[in-house]
């Protein structure tokens, strides 16, 4: 591709810095203040159909799968529909039961990932209703689905996805709000989420303005041979995506675990040479997360917290502006994109084209 780099040294850096503007675009023209909801023109799902959904199953690969994990939690929280995400390839190889009351959602930046497309085709053949959350307009997955949401992130060139991940999570917030307001989400909660959505672009810009602080931290992690990422419920998909991003562009081994699973195994790995990145939002699970930090500290583990307030048990805290609890995951991953990026810079990696990876995998 030959898009202008606009003074940035890599597409990844350029695309991270486009995120405030990109989120503005995914919101534009969609908020309906009068009904405390959003209008999603391409969804092709009327209110009666939306009410009859009993489950939501989200399918994607790589970073899009992680965006789907964030989305599943938002749908469950705001619309109170049981929802989960699964890698598209796993889904299609396990001969899944296709259920007429389930809404299936395929997530893809490119709209061309073969495993996702094949899952959509199999679902359609079995009569399922499938929506797409896709970036590239008119792509194969966009054409095969019954309707969906374009995420309007703009062209993404770097192999690893940043702005499209963020916009996809915002698109899911819109879908969750839309489904919620058709079902049982109150007007007051609808308004609260809308106000939160409107704050996102400026909060993202604020995080990006703080990149120098993260650049300074990166030197500390460049020489780790392995890193642990932990989060709980809303923080867990954030940890998964941050760990993927780090390994993709730095080649440092990284693992992501739910904070609650630490004591069931990975705590054995904790030592000074195995730093932990912990997602610690100021939500109803704050005390539980603080307890996990204490367990790591007691084993002399180094901790970098991504949080809304300084965490005393952590060696460093990256402060992130607070939004509504349901929307916090959208913001908490952004400093960790920057951390992966600056760590890869320290190591002089080929950031836009990591070894062995391709931007879109259109073969099996
Ligand atoms: C490849 C890329 C990943 C991407 C995944 C899904 O594996 O290297 O960065 O997340 O495909 O791509 P999609 O276009 O479907 O979102």
TrEMBL record:
Signal peptide: none
Catalytic machinery residues: 359
Top-rank EC class of the record's enzyme: transferase
Domain of life: Bacteria
Enzyme Commission number(s) of this protein: 2.6.1.16
Domain SIS: 45-185, 217-354
Sections of the chain in a coiled coil: none
Keywords: Aminotransferase, Cytoplasm, Glutamine amidotransferase, Repeat, Transferase
GO molecular function, one term: glutamine-fructose-6-phosphate transaminase (isomerizing) activity
Coarse class of the protein's main subcellular location: cytoplasm
Catalysed reactions listed for this entry: D-fructose 6-phosphate + L-glutamine = D-glucosamine 6-phosphate + L-glutamate
Repeat keyword on record: yes
Localization terms from the record: Cytoplasm
Function: Catalyzes the first step in hexosamine metabolism, converting fructose-6P into glucosamine-6P using glutamine as a nitrogen source.
Complexes and interactors: Homodimer.
Protein name: Glutamine--fructose-6-phosphate aminotransferase [isomerizing]
Lineage, highest ranks first: Bacteria, Bacillati, Actinomycetota, Actinomycetes, Kitasatosporales
Residues shown, of full length: 242 to 605 of 605
């Amino acid at each position: 591709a030959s898009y202008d780099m606009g003074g940035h040294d890599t597409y990844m850096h350029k695309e991270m810095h486009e995120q405030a503007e990109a989120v503005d675009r995914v919101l534009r023209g969609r908020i309906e203040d009068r009904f405390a909801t959003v209008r999603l023109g391409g969804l092709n799902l009327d209110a009666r159909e939306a009410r009859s959904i009993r489950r939501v199953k989200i399918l994607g690969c790589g970073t899009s799968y992680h965006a789907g994990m964030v989305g599943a939690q938002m749908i469950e929280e705001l619309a109170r529909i049981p929802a989960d995400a699964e890698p598209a390839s796993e889904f299609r190889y396990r001969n899944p039961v296709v259920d007429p009351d389930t809404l299936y959602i395929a997530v893809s930046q490119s709209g061309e990932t073969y495993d996702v497309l094949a899952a959509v085709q199999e679902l359609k053949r079995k009569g399922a209703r499938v929506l797409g959350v896709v970036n590239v307009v008119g792509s194969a997955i966009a054409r095969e689905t019954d309707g969906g949401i374009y995420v309007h992130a703009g062209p993404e060139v770097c192999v690893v996805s940043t702005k499209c991940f963020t916009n996809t999570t915002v698109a899911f917030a819109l879908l969750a709000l839309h489904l919620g307001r058709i079902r049982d989400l109150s007007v007051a909660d609808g308004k609260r989420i809308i106000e939160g959505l409107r704050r996102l672009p400026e909060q993202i810009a604020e995080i990006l303005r703080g990149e120098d602080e993260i650049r300074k931290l990166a030197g500390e992690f460049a020489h780790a041979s392995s890193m642990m990422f932990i989060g709980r419920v809303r923080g867990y998909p954030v940890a998964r995506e941050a760990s993927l991003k780090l390994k993709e562009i730095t080649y440092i081994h990284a693992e992501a675990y739910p904070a609650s699973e630490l004591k069931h195994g990975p705590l054995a790995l904790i030592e000074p040479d195995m730093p932990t990145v912990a997602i610690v939002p100021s939500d109803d699970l704050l005390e539980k997360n603080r307890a996990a930090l204490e367990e790591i500290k007691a084993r002399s583990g180094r901790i970098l917290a991504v949080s809304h307030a300084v965490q005393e048990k952590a060696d460093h805290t990256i402060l992130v502006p607070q939004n509504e609890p349901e929307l916090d995951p959208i913001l908490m991953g952004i400093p960790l994109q920057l951390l992966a990026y600056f760590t890869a810079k320290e190591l002089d990696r080929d950031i836009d084209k990591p070894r062995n990876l391709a931007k879109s995998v259109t073969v099996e």
